[in-house]
Amino acid sequence: MAAISFDPSINVQVNQKSHGVLVEEIEGLIRVHKNGHVERPPTIPIVPCTATSGVTAKDIVIDKFTGLWTRIYVPNYSNKMPLLIYFHGGGFCVGSAAWSCYHEFLSGLASKAGCIIFSVNYRLAPENRLPAAYDDGIETLMWVKQQALSGSNEHKWWLSQSDLSSLFLAGDSAGANIAYNVATRLGSHGGTSASSGMKPLVVKGSILIQPFFGGESRTATEMHATPQVTSALTLPASDAYWRLSLPFGSNRDHPWCNPLANGTPKLRELRLPPTMMCVSEMDILKDRNMGFCNALGGAGKRVETKIYKGVGHAFQILHNSPSSHIRTQEMISHIKTFINQ
């Protein structure tokens, strides 16, 4: 997720003189000063971890030294359920597993799709540039693996209901980028699949919702798309996020931003699980997402593409168009089918 419409009345007043020159700003979401000071106005409410109808939710610290934690959602089902490791969006720079919009979406997804969800609160850029978020993704998986191997009584409340042989990496926008890059790391560790070395965990697939990729060359939808009030991503915001999150000195053809920069032969060599790609019709990333789907298919990877008509980037989180709720229910239905096939 990127630029979000907001109410200026709740914007935080800042004494810019105390922090020097403002070098980057995405209105309503983040300000970065030359001295390194970062401000994130509370545009979207943070909500406590409260149980919702039919779903138990708890916050668990994974690494107290880096601050990595996760919000776990366990629906009230008697049978074992697939496990989703979910990464929120926000251009790598903003967002939280405690944002109200993610708490609402993921508690609903857990209940309706019948799955346990780990919503990962990874480190943010620019204080922690990439690959920090990818490292946190891997650390989360290794932590889950450790709890499974130890048979932890403390975590029995979710472990006993998790089908560890049916684990999925998922996320939206920057979170989908994280899910993809975590999958590529797992697939590069040797063995025959993305699950090699992860037993008893078996990575069965990836769910990439409007994945946040980029490139130095613009696509048609990036250049010519009419700004949409129903879409959360603009090209200037996209560029700003990449400037803040990529390693210093990198451009948008860095492989973490543009996985197709070196062509598709590299894709062919990767061991990736089956992928479900969710693309929004009104998203500036539509062409880039579709091109990535085609490249995956051309490289012999299993990919399912779902296109959501009449909605923009992060519609499932923002609910800012009349059709967004309908399309969100479609997406949840597609995810449920994908994780249970």
UniProtKB/TrEMBL annotation:
Taxonomic placement: Eukaryota, Viridiplantae, Streptophyta, Embryophyta, Tracheophyta
A Pfam family of this chain: Abhydrolase_3
SUPFAM superfamilies registered for this protein in UniProt: alpha/beta-Hydrolases (SSF53474)
Alphabetical list of Gene3D superfamilies matching this protein: alpha/beta hydrolase
Active-site residues, record numbering mapped to chain: 173
One term of GO molecular function: hydrolase activity
InterPro entries, sorted: AB_hydrolase_3 (IPR013094), AB_hydrolase_fold (IPR029058), Carboxylest/Gibb_receptor (IPR050466), Lipase_GDXG_put_SER_AS (IPR033140)
Residue ranges occupied by any Alpha/beta hydrolase fold-3 domain in the UniProt entry: 84-316
Protein name: Alpha/beta hydrolase fold-3 domain-containing protein
PROSITE patterns: LIPASE_GDXG_SER (PS01174)
Family (UniProt): Belongs to the 'GDXG' lipolytic enzyme family.
